[in-house]
Design brief:
This protein is of the alpha/beta class. The chain is built from 9 helices and 15 strands. Helix 3 packs across helix 6, helix 4 packs across helix 9 and helix 6 runs antiparallel to helix 9. The protein is globular. The relative contact order is 0.14. Bound molecules: zinc ion (ZN). The site of zinc ion (ZN) has 5 residues, from loops.
């Protein structure tokens, strides 16, 4: 009998050690407990939220909204894709641990040490020379012209704000994709932004919206990869800046959405060559669809490209504030 009691106590201890802590549920992480540690408080759901949705707000007003079975959530009003779907554990929403550490933590962790100074920014106007990029279906304007024009506008705004800006190309010339991050390294850039415009398949004149990309972190899948189990397995130089890449992508993406009113196609991850070998934080912006009848016409208007340039500049300045430890 005494032996049985002893075994029972042992079993209790063993079960206790196996039971998920308040933070972890197996390989998943309980959202409510985790974001509370980052200073976010639970909010009551809005009428438009589903019964399973959870809503949080930080002291700085940034909101996090998550819903069950989705592979994205909203942070500060911008859609951010996850590697895995949001699930539920004992009535609480959970995210995969790599999504917590690679997406939520960098975005919600405001108190970075003030070590990140940004002076020199390399802007990369996508395509050029022999490579026109996407072509506007309305008037034949090439992506390479639009990205160069946007880059020149962005350069002027950033310089006015005290930054030193170098373009990977100042005219209609081609640079190999691998030469662009190498250019940034030679220039001793503190930040790298590659500018692009998107296009849909033939006969699709409707798809529109803005996407902002960070290089895919190890253990995460690229957003556009149809095989969602094919995680990035080998670290690339660009992965040294996963945390900063994500903060920069989100900061710029939010400003782009706010300044243009464009459709939110999300902060995404991809293994783009121009981001792979970077030795500073960097992102790639797809500033809308030149193939769209409406958005394409807007992108061909210089006033709209000025808005895009202004938004990217504001996003960079937001990023600098955030990474210098301002809430
Ligand atoms: Zn492009």
């Amino acid at each position: 009998m005494r032996l049985r009691v002893y075994h029972f106590i042992l079993l209790l201890c063993f079960a206790g050690s196996l039971a998920p802590s308040t933070l972890h549920a197996g390989n998943d992480i309980v959202l409510s407990d985790s974001v509370a540690q980052l200073g976010l408080a639970s909010q009551s759901n809005k009428a438009s939220d589903s019964a399973d949705a959870e809503r949080y707000a930080g002291k700085n007003g940034i909101e996090l909204v998550a819903d069950k079975n989705r592979d994205f959530l909203y942070i500060g009003g911008a859609k951010v894709f996850l590697s895995g779907s949001i699930r539920s554990y004992r009535g609480k929403l959970t995210v995969q641990s790599n999504d917590y550490y690679k997406v939520l933590l960098p975005l919600l962790w405001w108190s970075q040490p003030p070590t990140n100074s940004i002076k020199r920014i390399v802007i990369d106007p996508g395509h050029g020379g022999k490579d026109p990029g996407k072509v506007c279906s309305l008037n034949g304007t090439c992506e390479k012209q639009l990205t160069l024009d946007t880059a020149l506008r962005l350069k002027a705004i950033l310089e006015k704000n005290g930054y030193e800006v170098i373009l990977t190309r100042n005219k209609d010339t081609w640079l190999d994709l691998d030469d662009r991050p190498a250019f940034a390294a030679r220039a001793k850039a503190d930040l790298f932004v590659s500018l692009h415009y998107n296009a849909a398949g033939a006969n699709d004149f409707k798809s529109s919206g803005i996407e902002t990309y960070a290089y895919t972190p190890v253990g995460q899948t690229s957003t556009n990869d149809t095989n969602r189990n094919r995680a990035q397995s080998s670290a690339q130089p660009g992965n040294n800046f996963d945390t900063f890449n994500m903060i920069l992508a989100w900061s710029v993406h939010r400003r782009l959405l706010a300044n243009t009113g464009a459709e939110d196609r999300g902060v995404r991850r991809a293994k783009f060559a121009v981001l792979r070998t970077l030795n500073c934080p960097g992102i790639l912006v797809e500033g809308g669809f030149v193939s769209s009848r409406t958005e394409g016409a807007m992108i061909c208007d210089p006033a709209y490209r000025q808005k895009i340039a202004q938004a990217v500049a504001e996003g960079i300045m937001d990023y600098r504030q955030r990474t210098q430890g301002h809430p």
